[in-house]
Amino acid sequence: MFSLDTWISNIPVRQMMFNIFVYFNYLNSNKKMADQADHQAGDTGPPKGIPALKAHVAANKVDVALWAIRVLTVLFTIGYVLPIFNNPVSAFYKALLANAATSALRLHQRIPAREISVSREFLARFFLEDSAHYLFYSLIFMNVAPNLLVLTPIFLFALLHAASYSLTILDTLGQNSMWVARLLISLVEFQSRNILRAAALAEIVLFPLVVFMAFFGYCGLLTPFVYYYFVTWRYASRRNPYTRNTFRELRVVAEGLSSRPATPAILRSGIQSCVQLVCRMAPPMEHVQQ
């Protein structure tokens, strides 16, 4: 009867060692060939590092400039909140100027110079762009007393867009570069919906604050009327529905508060009057693209 032990014992030891050596040598040669193939495949891929970053900057000058200005907007806002190295008033207006520069560059991308014309159709298209809204926003508050709520929307938008493009720059440098920065960027992008909602809420809450500031001399008397147009543009925005959705959420909260039995009659009447006033001031819904 055939036995595996008997068959192995009949093979010379020297032959067994030779076969094992040949087998491992075969495995090692296959591994080297696979590594060489991977290395050659990596050589044919896109380059990484500083040369790749320089090429990316040369090919995407406007996008890189937008990223740099947004980073400056974030830094100026932080400098206004924590005035350690600069004047907070100067940081406030620099943040507004940086936001105006960002909006102007975005408008240049969205509406090329060859399409500019003096016509009602062009103005209607111009004010449909979110970048035009925030260019107008910076101009509104250039002569207003510094206030943190004014910087909140532009800070949140700059933070979100700068974080998104920072990931592109890190990918250009290499997949494993600056993992701490990648982690922070991932946290920002994970909270992108909440960031956009917070920016929309700041836009809305700023309107009664501007009215209050006008009464007490912190801004011009025409500023609330001009800011009203900004809010209506944001409400009717085609690309960003968060302002519109936040208005609806606030209306639901206000109507729920007024319908509570414990709410005093005078407060209930005041809330209902405010809701009706805001609804009358809203732009026509037929102009809003869902």
Automatic annotation (TrEMBL):
Keyword Transmembrane recorded: yes
Compartments, record wording: Membrane
GO BP field: endoplasmic reticulum tubular network organization; membrane organization
Domain of life of the organism encoding this protein: Eukaryota
Keyword RNA-binding in record: no
Membrane topology field: Multi-pass membrane protein
This protein's GO CC annotations: endoplasmic reticulum; membrane
Transmembrane segments: 64-85, 134-160, 205-230
Pfam families: TMEM33_Pom33
Keywords: Membrane, Transmembrane, Transmembrane helix
Signal peptide: none
Record-stated family: Belongs to the PER33/POM33 family.
The protein's name in its UniProt record: Krueppel homolog 2
Organism: Arctia plantaginis
